[in-house]
Amino acid sequence: MCGIFGITDNKDAAKLAYVGLFTLQHRGQESAGIVSDAGGALRHHAGMGLVSEVFDRDTLDALGGRSAIGHIRYSTTGSSHIKNAQPLVLNSCLGPVAVAHNGNLTNADALKDRLQKSGAIFQSSSDSEVILHLAAKYRGRDLAATLASNLTKLEGAYAFLFMAPGLVIGARDPHGYRPLVLGRLGRSWILSSETCAIDVAGGRLVREIEPGEMVVIKGGRASFRRFAAPARHTRCIFEQVYFARPDSLVAGRTVQTARYEIGARLARELAGLKADIVSGVPDSGTVYALGYSKESGIPYRTVFMRNHYTGRSFIQPDQRLREFTAHLKLAPIKDVIKGKSIVLIDDSLVRGTTSKKIVGSLRRAGAKKVVMAIASPPIIAPCYFGIDTPTRRELIADRMSVEKIRRFIGADALHYLGLESLVDACGGGTDRNFCVSCFTGRYNGLGKGGR
Ligand code: SF4
Description:
alpha+beta; Glutamine Phosphoribosylpyrophosphate, subunit 1, domain 1; Rossmann fold; seven-stranded antiparallel sheet; six-stranded antiparallel sheet; 23 strands; disordered C terminus; binds iron/sulfur cluster
């Protein structure tokens, strides 16, 4: 998961790109970068760390330009290194081209191998660079047409922003795994991973870019074209479960509304369960717990204080860091917990190590009973579409039964939300289908290069 944001035709383009990336910071914290279009030349600044650490007033002034695209990264392929910070910029026979990518290309290795054999020299180990080399090999003069004919060679998940002098292009894979929305701010166009960044930048949402659709923004005008026939729309359901900000609109409803409904459905599935209080693992768990509380009548209480300055444990790239930040960031509120039977809701249970620490923390604070309720089904299969669950071995639900997991995390009871309840709460419906492959092990849209 990464975040991308672009804005055109605005004298404050680089600064607004900064605002957009700052708003999308929850989507990745490894690196941040902005490329601006400074009248024929692309200017680039990127670095490791948070948006606020990478940019300051001087770097934003130096970027200047009337259009800008930006990226914040959390790595799925390619190491956590500055050379993989995006946007990537390549000088091609079509001139300078920049790309910002959210997703994962499942046939990138095969394509890269072929391109290297024909002389391409890669600057990064990121899968995202493949599309630039494919485009660079093409002999046409029109970048949009070049990209349209080469995007069909890619398999997997992508939302792309491209920039060349005088041109910004957005494109979304034929299944629509990763999000991309279009907004307007006066005469400017905005492309963003989430609607919240359009809102914060002062714009208004126009619409979602459709799966297999490309938007070409040139001379203040946006034109739309299909580069691939629409496939079954399978947006990643984890946008609602965990990734997206509660104020973002996904599949026609805010993430906040979907999470509240998920909490209510958990309560219905656990009807009759007695407890003194219900709470959530902050931040996403809080809304689930409020929905649960309303439905069940069990009072909501906050049992953990979250330190907001430690980063999100799920998206740290290595296990050692993940465990360290998980420990740092949640502090139990002892007098709320002591002597209580607690229903605690978390968004998902991936490796089980964080849940074990959280349950242990409640016990040490004097909880009488801990029922762990998970707002999604067991994750039994890895994601090949840009989310960091790369091997089955790491997934506790692939190795253990629910009862064994309960014992591992030390809870008195463990309940997972049913898949049907999750899909319904997120919007359901035939035209609003979701990718649920990590819950089912059945993959949609993986071609020959897929695993
Ligand atoms: S496999 Fe899971 S995490 Fe990956 S895109 Fe599908 S729903 Fe999202």
